[in-house]
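Dig into these lines:

——
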Amino acid sequence: MFCHVARFTPPTARRWKTRLCKRNKDYMKLPDPYLAMWYHETCKFAAWAIQRGVTRTAIMPGFKPENRGMGNVWAQFLRETGHPGTNWVDVDSELASRGITGMSFEDALRRLRA
């Protein structure tokens, strides 16, 4: 969704929020605070990727030198933005460390943005 836009604008963020919330309702079924954390981090990732000119080719696996794979691009984002300690395995601990356990999506998002 983000590789074709020049900047990550508020309208782009709203479209992403709508898409992510629909996916969550349809099949992801993440708790609200986890969804808020995921939305918050993916917005930061999108802005970072656009700023660095990350292309669809870069995130795709393959044999071309420019194919890096999404996992490698995500790992670079985490290293460069100071999030290597984010715990995506033990979600309950991560939610607790961010102080958003049990919050609604909007309340958790406000806390994450503060």
